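Onboarding guide, step 5: your first structure request.
Type a short instruction followed by the sequence, for example:

Predict the 3D structure of this protein.
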Amino acid sequence: MKKLYVLRTVSLCMGLAFGVATFSVSAQQGASMHGMDMSASADAGSNSSTSAFEKADKEMMAKMSSPPYTGDADKDFVSHMIPHHEGAVEMAKVQLKYGKDPELRRLAKNIIKAQHDEIAFMQRWQAKHGGK
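The system replies with structure tokens like these:
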């Protein structure tokens, strides 16, 4: 159990680091997180998986942008990570619907399970600490 907790913690930290780096690059290029430039996807054609990924991404970005920051790092972390994790679940569902690679399908299933567990934890934390 302790190994699983450590793995999830490392995974979460890596995901946060990637998100911060991505946001940093976007900010430097003048793009906002909420209005991410989807022009590259226009080249992808009318692929159904592309449309599904774009929809999941746009919904996640909108939800992540909507809760105002409060100055309480714990509450802000949880209120913005829940929609981030929900977005990961939606993207994993797209992978399961359209993807064919067995390893990625297995990863998508694991992501759905792990993210659901983490979302439930954060929702319980919010309820306990006067959050949303």
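Each response can be followed by summary notes, for example: Residues 2-28 form the longest helix (27 residues).
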